[in-house]
Design a protein that fits this description.
mainly alpha, 77% helix, 0% strand
């Protein structure tokens, strides 16, 4: 198993904290004190992101065990940007909400791969034999 430097562990913990804190600040107030309590697509998104905030917080304590959280974070942002934001931008342009979301997703797409210990991922997730 490749050695993980303390710097890389701190970068991972910082990314989990960044994700968790960002979602706690932006999502949890609407979960706790909604304008209207509706069961619609917005409440589904808020619930999913609220759960992601809590799971990312666990990553601060267990940064390597929680790497799938970072994979999820990277993949959903890539899928949204490539599958929805860019085609919409090409056709009709992005509204204010989509522009803000696009910017937030780009930050994750740039920062998350920088913090992932790719040699560790290769040894533990790709080359590892199933037990």
């Amino acid at each position: 198993m490749p050695a993980i430097t303390k710097l890389k562990l701190y970068l991972l913990r910082g990314m989990y904290l960044f994700i968790s804190l960002g979602l706690v600040i932006t999502i949890w107030p609407e979960i706790l004190y909604p304008n209207l309590r509706l069961a619609n697509q917005d409440s589904v998104i808020q619930s999913l992101l609220g759960a992601l905030a809590l799971i990312a917080a666990i990553g601060i304590r267990y940064p390597l065990k929680m790497l799938p959280v970072l994979f999820f974070e990277l993949l959903w942002k890539l899928i949204w940007v490539l599958g929805f934001a860019l085609p919409t931008y090409k056709n009709t342009g992005l509204d204010t909400y989509a522009k803000e979301t696009f910017f937030a997703c780009l930050i994750g797409i740039v920062l998350v791969p920088f913090t992932i210990p790719w040699r560790y991922v290769q040894s533990q997730y790709i080359k590892s034999k199933t037990k």
